[in-house]
Amino acid sequence: MSADPYVLRVNGNDHQVPDAHLGESLLWVLRERLGLPGSKNACEEGECGSCSVQIDGELVCSCLVLAAAAVGREVTTIEGLAPDGELADVQRAFVEAGAVQCGFCTPGLLMAVDTLLDELSDDGSVPDDLTVREAISGNLCRCTGYGRILEAVSIAADIRRGESRGDLA
Amino acid sequence: MEAMSVTFARTVDDACAALAEHPGALLLAGGTDLMVGVNRGQVRFADVVVLDRVDELRGWRREGDEIVLGAGLTYAEMGRGELPALVPALAQASRTVGSPQIRNAGTLGGNVATSSPAGDTLPVLAALDATIDLRSAQGARRLAIGEFVTGVKQNALEPGELIEAVRVPVLDGPQEFLKVGTRNAMVISVVSLALVVDRSGRNVRVGLGSVSPVPLRPADAEAHIAGCIDWDTGSAPDAAAVHRFAALVAGAARPIDDHRGTAAYRSHAVGVLARRALLRAFPGGAS
Ligand SMILES: Cc1cc2nc3c(=O)[nH]c(=O)nc-3n(C[C@H](O)[C@H](O)[C@H](O)COP(=O)(O)OP(=O)(O)OC[C@H]3O[C@@H](n4cnc5c(N)ncnc54)[C@H](O)[C@@H]3O)c2cc1C
Ligand code: FES
Ligand code: FES
Asked: What is the pTM of this model?
């Protein structure tokens, strides 16, 4: 059963989605129909977070979003974090901290951390350890043991607050 | 082949009309239960009625001593603003659900409609004697939560009907929600318990989750502990009373063995939660 074509707004651009089938998740449509494979697919049941995207600024698992129901929403994927090819602050921080090993979890984690920093930047506060751990609790990483990810978050928070840390100079 | 339809309802009336027009259409709220089944190929559908743009379902309001919670409230929304002060156990339960991603999408109405024994809002709604407002093109009706959930993932929803709102009382007294799982995030309850104190009604009400097909109220435990509290001073019940309360709660549980835990463990754990919740509600009590 194919759906009527619909339009998804992803990373600021409208994309026609023709020939879609009913029941396709946003994750599937992003990867297989729109050529945006940055969001990863590991579980398709909301457990791993590797498919995390922002919809209207809120972090969700794209595998649990019916693509055809995301019409009219603003979807931001990992490809939208650094549209001009220059690394975003969270990406620089992950590189800096060595928080990427196999990299499979990284796009989802970057979206989670970006969302956290967006929320915090409203009041300019520094995220405490518990807040950070809770913010990334829906993202599984099987390589790093999370230590370097936590370090990356604190670097990213500093960058976003516009501080330059001496040890990074 | 028949084409699928996706209806973006704007009002509850719209949604009911769409359900009437497309019998068998599926309601889609946050998708956190439904899409898991869709991705596994277990759920097939031709028509979807999307609820997340129905403003009437998204908010909450106070009506006298009641809070009317729109079915479309997300866990994230139930955990912020004034609601945690008004219905603390519901906010606490919301905070334990899934992960930030799940809490941003998953809704109260979806949890109630799924009617899973592990649904974390259900023991809270049972303890609060919540009522469920249902709507269809034919009209409206209201059921007690105990009438609504009829079995494991079974409920009284009729074809063409949707959950519009959940009504809970504003009570004078502390509330606790506790849940046992293998870690803090992303866990389906092995057992859960909600305890609410109603000082003006002079009772303590308890809802148990994951220990029976439907959320349970341990009536004997409630009656026992209400009689052991000095409601005029609000002082804590003594150690023997707390012990008996926990034993009565454990005895009321009707758990099964499954991959998450044994029945014996669940009965034990729910007794531990009962004691812990009571002592938090009445600090200073002997443990
Ligand atoms: C990774 C993960 C972790 C989870 N963790 C928890 C947890 O800790 N605790 C917990 O309780 N649950 C948990 N869940 C389950 C799920 O998130 C909740 O049950 C959630 O409340 C479902 O709401 P939804 O809006 O996403 O429902 P949907 O998936 O949109 O819908 C679920 C069902 O309810 C029906 N429905 C939805 N809204 C209405 C309505 N207004 N009227 C009538 N029918 C309706 C739908 O048709 C469907 O049958 C988890 C799920 C995932 C994927
Ligand atoms: S693929 Fe979506 S959470 Fe794992
Ligand atoms: S770097 Fe391999 S899963 Fe996280």
From this structure: 0.96
